[in-house]
Amino acid sequence: MLRKIVVLSAMATGLSAFQAAAAPLGEPAVLRPQADSNLIQLAQSEVEVFYDSRGNRVLVDPYTGKVIAVQPPETRLNRPALRREMRRQELRRDYRQGDVLIGPADDGYYSDDALAVPTDPNGDDYYNNDLNAFPEAPGEPRVVSREPLQSPDDQPALPANPRITDRPLEPSIAVKGREDVASLQILLDRLGASPGVIDGRFGSNVDKALVAYNEMTGASLKSTDAEGIKQALAETGGDAFGSYTITPEDAAGPFVASVPADYSEKAKLERMAFTSVTEMLAERFHMDENYLKALNPDLNFNRPGTIVKVANFGKLVNKPVSRIVADKGLKQVRAYNEAGQLVAAYPATIGSGDTPSPTGIHAVSRVALDPNYTYNPKLNFKQGENDKVLTIPPGPNGPVGSVWIALDKPTYGIHGTPDPSKIGKTESHGCVRLTNWDARELAKIVKSGVPVEFME
User: Fold this and answer.
1) Residues catalogued as catalytic
2) 191 pLDDT band (50/70/90 cuts)?
3) pLDDT tens digits, 51-62
4) Are the CB atoms for 429 and 411 separated by under 8 Å?
5) 199, 176 in Cβ contact below 8 A?
6) pTM for the whole thing?
7) What percent of the chain has pLDDT over 70?
């Protein structure tokens, strides 16, 4: 069968001229075939196909010029409907379904203004259930073979025992601290106003260190004064950051695979050592371990010779201390010289509601560096199910860190911590807890007999 689609614009132009010449006024124009070649074979009849301005397909008898049927765009492939309309044409029956013109118009003429909408797919006439509606397909029936769908039993299953780790996920390296904030923290640390861990983040520890810095220097530095911070860094040791080359001794350790939480398990270790090179370097340079990693992405910290960017915190405070104040409300330890001048300030964790710290004034009785720790549940607190006296070996990851400054009140003292990032943000078992590096600095400038005043 041959089919030729007549473009609407060209047809409209030609038809307009044709109608003007052939149709009398007041009478509809007749669409005439242009050539005998525009024919299709449909239900044993020859028809011509035109398209009107609405997109409807118009079937016209090529011999009489009368409209056989009008097909809206959505029903062009509804061949059962075409067969029925051909049958109705043979019986000379005009047919409308609602407002849809799907049969011969009055007098067999077609008007472009006639309303034509898609046949309702939900109607009874949309599908023809008559078995004779379609002719038999030529040739043998076509058989389509398909691959079988994958059954649930064929799909890979998750492991029966998925691997789960208790180790907390590290913060995203992308969410790292700001170097301008870290520069301020380094400046404060150089002058003895410790911000705790250098992590590039503002917080209460930075705020109170800045107050202490201004008291010690007589300045009025603000955290937003970028030029003032830059100038102060230049006057106190230069750039905030420096480079450090990892040595073979650094990479060799010793290290422990992990630090158990249970005290009885801690007591079985030879030493409460660092767990990695990064943890060791972070403490050495007063830094948060994750911030150290963020500053040095993709570096191999376990390889000697690796150059690492670290905080240039300067020298430790070396002025003798004659009085210490442990401020519970401010969560800060302040050290003064004989003239009453503030020489050092440290963020601190001081006691808790269940195990409060001492009150009043006490005195330093002795100082121990890298001490072991004696756990006695009858004297202070009970840890887990441990009800016996245990001796936990020394090391930076021990319960009291790497320093113990004992007070004249038994079992109480000022000491370090294995978790420096939590200083000033958690509670203790009654003692005064500092970062290991702050506790070590204080231990070197204090001596027995120095009073320690606890302020509420």
Assistant:
1) 415, 431
2) very high
3) 777 777 787 877
4) no
5) no
6) 0.61
7) 65
26 in the Ramachandran plot: left (φ > 0), alpha (ψ -120 to 50) or beta? left
DSSP 260-272: -SSHHHHTTSS--
Task: Give me 67's structure tokens.
Answer: 């409209």
What pLDDT, in 10s, does the model give residues 367-390? 999 999 888 888 777 787 888 889
CA-based nearest residue to 372, from 397, 355, 351: 397
CA distance 123 to 37: 36
More confident residue, 341 or 155: 341
Tokens of 61: 């008898």
Q: For CA atoms 263, 265, 268, 273, give the dihedral sign.
A: negative
Long-range contacts for 231-238 (Cβ within 8 Å, ≥24 apart)? 232/187, 233/183, 233/186, 233/187, 236/187, 236/190, 236/191, 236/314, 237/190, 237/312, 237/314, 238/312
First to last CA, the chain: 102
Residue 130: exposure state from Cβ atoms within 10 A (0-12, 13-18, ≥19): exposed
DSSP-assigned states of every residue in 9-64: HHHHHHHHHHHHHHSPTTS---PPPS-TTS-EEETTEEEEEEE-TTS-EEEE-TTT
- Give the phi and the psi of residue 41 in degrees, each rounded to 5: -95, 115
